[in-house]
Amino acid sequence: MTGTLVLAGTPIGDVRDAPPRLAEELAGADVVAAEDTRRLRRLTQALGVTPRGRVVSYFEGNESARTPELVEELAGGARVLLVTDAGMPSVSDPGYRLVAAAVERDVRVTAVPGPSAVLTALALSGLPVDRFCFEGFLPRKAGERLTRLREVAGERRTLVYFESTHRVDDTLAAMAEVFGADRRAAVCRELTKTYEEVRRGGLGELAAWAAEGVRGEITVVVEGAPEQGAEEVGAEELVRRVRVREEAGERRKEAIAAVAAQVGLPKREVFDAVVAAKNAGA
């Protein structure tokens, strides 16, 4: 009989948010795979529990190599508990490879639900929550970051991102450039911790605020693109937006695609507006 893989949510800040079942699983698992064994030690001490099973590290650097080992443990009947530093495993954290490998071997996979920075930030943002998408971390390089943002410029659902404290100012500035300075957003930092803060406003305003320095764990929630049609954005404005992007270094084809996504129009309509303006000498 095969074992069971348990994905356990851990507190994102306040240890009192730990689900009661977490202590039980930590105490009873045959193997505890932790993203950081030192953090795990602090968590178990805070919960007053001592793991009886073997504790191993499972992080980005050894995830590929350790996954087969853990799968063999599972295939042999072990109960393996996977925990990350904060939140649910596999959500922008190690875990996906192990879950996929366990499923491939017909191993039972279950979870101990716990705190989530994604859902907590979304609920606190004050933005629409009926439809949303999680985009994780944006690329570190400026060009790749802009490209990724342009891909979702026309997304109508609320967007949720994780970001590093060292890059949040650049990210917000890029979002203001691509989505528009007035697009509503919320920067949630240090959720459930002593210095928790939720700063709400337009992307331009938030970018200026972040330029002064922001510390802590950051989750950014951005309002989805407004529903607009051709009757709301005229040809002259379409051409102006394309020109702004071209002057910033974008190729015309990419600029037209990004503007079309922003306003919810077919790329052909934006292209025709640009060509007409060129022919008119505007």
From TrEMBL:
EC primary class: transferase
Subcellular location: Cytoplasm
Keywords: Cytoplasm, Methyltransferase, rRNA processing, S-adenosyl-L-methionine, Transferase
Keyword rRNA processing found: yes
Record-annotated Tetrapyrrole methylase domain positions: 4-207
EC code: 2.1.1.198
Reaction it catalyzes: cytidine(1402) in 16S rRNA + S-adenosyl-L-methionine = 2'-O-methylcytidine(1402) in 16S rRNA + S-adenosyl-L-homocysteine + H(+)
Pfam families the UniProt entry points to: TP_methylase
Domain of life: Bacteria
Family: Belongs to the methyltransferase superfamily. RsmI family.
Known role: Catalyzes the 2'-O-methylation of the ribose of cytidine 1402 (C1402) in 16S rRNA.
Protein name: Ribosomal RNA small subunit methyltransferase I
Organism in which the protein naturally occurs: Streptomyces thinghirensis
Phylogenetic lineage: Bacteria, Bacillati, Actinomycetota, Actinomycetes, Kitasatosporales
Gene name for this UniProt entry: rsmI
